[in-house]
Amino acid sequence: MITFLEYVAQDLLDKYGTDMSGIAVVFPNKRASLFLNQALARMAGRPLWSPAYITISDFFRQHSELTVADPIKSICDLYKTYGEVTGNVGETLDQFYGWGQLLLADFDDIDKNMADAHRVFSNIRDLRELDDLSYLNEEQKAELHRFFANFDDNPEGLKERFIMLWGRLNDIYNQFKKKLHSQGLAYEGMLYREVVEEDDIQTQYKHYVFVGFNVLQKVEQRLFKRFKDEEKASFYWDYDRYYMRRTNEAGNYIRRWLDRFPNALPNDCDDLYENLDKEKEISFISAPTENLQARFITEWLRDGDRYKDGKRTAIVLCDEHLLQTVIHCIPNEVESLNVTTGYPLQQTPIASMVTQLLTLQTEGFSVQEQGYRLHYVNRVLRHPYGKYLVPDVAEVIERLNKERRFYIIPQAGSLFEYHPGDRRHLPALVDWLAKTIRTIGVNGAADKDPLFEESIFRMFTLLTRLSDLMASGDLEADKIIFRRLLTQLIAATSIPFHGEPARGVQVMGVLETRNLDFDHVLVLSCNEGNMPKGVDDSSFIPHLIRKAYDLTTIENKVSIYSCYFHSLIQRAKDITFLYNNSTKGSRTGEMSRFMLQLMVEWNHPIHRQTLQAGQEPMHCEAHAVKKDEAVRRKLDGISYFSPTAINTYISCPLKYYFKYIAGIKENDETDVDDVDNRMFGNIFHAAAQLMYEKLLPKEVITAKDIDYLLKTGKSARPTPAGHIPATLDDVVDEAFATELFHQQAGSRKHPKLNGLQLINREVIIKYLHQLLRIDRRMTPLCVIGHEFDVRQTLTVKVNGTEKQIETGGRIDRLDEICLNTDCSRLRVVDYKTGGKAAEPLKNVDEIFDPKNIGKKSDYTMQAMLYSLIEARHDPEHNPDHRPVSPALLFIQHAGGKDYSPVLSMDGEEITDATIYEKDFFRNLTEKLEEINNPDIAFVPTDDWDRCKYCPYKQMCGR
């Protein structure tokens, strides 16, 4: 195949020889110039003086004294102009930014198509005035009549208000251009129009060669005509006769230009312009996912060794978000790859780091505490780039979280210096962000990661540009507006790939394929909505008005993309189109309209195929773990078994293995300052202890004492003169401070709670009230101790030898109820804040039966164990070995009139736990011996309901 650019190169050599120093070749985009230059060098066969290569944009910029303003500057100036003209100061810059881009695009379109802005936005008050507009032809007048006819019967006066807005848009347009011009700036359309409206264009070259254009806007048409009339230009058109027929929109524009700007190549050349009617290998392949399309690349490149054809092979992305996946799917055989599409800055780690840094400065800073919340500091430090900000970052994270320093006070001048959110301090914040990004770049440079370096550079450049705009007064915003604006700018920024464009397999977007020909083409995501892309009518100028004034419309955009589509395949040998055929919500997986058109109009067979994953998900199965030497060695080293560990084994021996033998920790996704169920229980336990120690009498608590505390919320103890009595609120706040924030007990100043923490605080106060009402029924009572440990040593037989094992745990509360009565007895009380209460059991054997785990038999086992140890082995709190009752106090279920927390066995309350001592320890010893028995494997539970919330269920495939 001889490519279009090779035909152009041969024609230029035939006409100008090897000295083209006075010639400039003008392209719509830069990429084609590299391929043309390579073709010229190869076909000349000897040294030559190459022509200059410029884009049409370069040409206009070279011939103007104005400079095209960057998009941020343009929007900022347009925003100011909008406010000055309309007096609307209520709209923030980030709110304006989106539709400001639309407005700027409209102004650009007006100027590139050299429309009269005053007439487009004119204040037409009477439809009859249309008859006097001699500058419009009859077709244009008809379009305007059709538009305004839609508002004739509108009682709300929409037509009048819309026309009034048009009048203001004209003022905005003129004022905005003046503002830019006074600074030596312009937007692209403004600059183009100024160039072509000059009487004389001082050209740098003798002759201009315009290659591969399609749609021509009015400024380009006028330029082409002037140079044609001055005999300074020649034109090379790339097309195929297949779509030059009137019925195909792909040739709409080139059909117009061939007569006005004659083709320098012979139009009767069949080899050049008669290719789409030739038979080709065209395949349409549907796939259920985008990733599956990308994975097909490997097979496609290897098939027929397409990858060996290098630059003759192209992978075209209709959806450029697929780039990251596509790059990972390139097979190892491909030695050279050229990527022309940019990598989205939004998908790089530095973008997420900037987001975290901004969040740290906004939600992450407590004004009251004058410090950063640990939760947000963790996010920054745990980021992949956190190691470039703080030396030994892992140790710092561990220390901060271990100490529970929930508020980190920033030091002035430090890396994490705080910057207030008002407009006056915003420039300092942006400078801080840029400085922080630079620090990351400098400290990470040793890794020699190109993507890291480029993304850091792009982000640093973006931030310094915003800083410059603030310094010059062009950008005025507060922290919130700036944050939203920066997010939009990051989303619109991409990182270019560096490489040798004329070598290797080409990965490109649709626009980069212009004027290029390939032998093998793979088009990904060729769905309706991607091809054609961006064919909406987002504009302040209604469609019919745009059409009347020859501005860009949807029809124009569709025609352009149709030309891209057909020119991409016209000279290729084989073309494969992939599209997503899945349906998600209202989005249906339809192939592009151009594919459907090709199926109808093309006279050769098209192969239809469907991709399927061809994979089955891996299923993990739970297998018993035998007690090999390593496991036995681990068991031999365990001398203490907590009730939790024993209950874990009863529930599922394999779970016990994962947790206690293999040491696999449960995934803790709870934020450090969140109050999860475990932390809620800890705070409640601490608050209950403080309530009894500080607010109620130590010796005997009466119903009167509890009534006073419930009524006033104040301490029932005598208060020394000059002292303020402690309150229930005080002890709850102290519990939060010690348990959640790890403050020293007795601290007077407590950190401010966030919203969820305040809600939990109110619930805990409610639970304490409930606890007091329950205890009132048992008065007079005495609380003997809170939160203390009890232990007992058991002897078990392992492999014929005796082993000493310690068991026990921490008792929440030991009290004596019904003092000075016949019913007086000790209780071991275990507070439970969960929703499900333990059910009564018939005998001790049921406590150790795995089938009763759902009845909360694990709670019963723990309470019984603590009570038995307390009755026999606690000389400090129970020196006389008085009988002890086990009690589980479920706060949420304690509102019933006859509620009693004391456990029952076979329908009878347990007044003395030692009655069941023999049976209990027999079962416990058997269970401990079973755990240590080398012949009994750790097997998974048979009850799959227990697996629903097990942290290890994925390892078992459940």
How would you explain this protein's 3D organization?
The chain is an alpha/beta fold and 958 residues long. Helices cover 43% and strands 13% of the residues. The protein contains 34 helices and 25 strands. The strands form seven sheets. It has a seven-stranded parallel sheet, with helices on one face. Strands 19, 20, 21, 22 and 23 form a five-stranded mixed sheet that branches. A four-stranded parallel sheet has the order 2-1-5-6. Helix 2 links the parallel strand 1 and strand 2. Helix 5 packs parallel to helix 9, helix 15 packs antiparallel against helix 16 and helix 18 runs antiparallel to helix 19. The longest helix has 25 residues. The chain is elongated and about 120 Å long. The chain starts with a helix and ends with a helix.
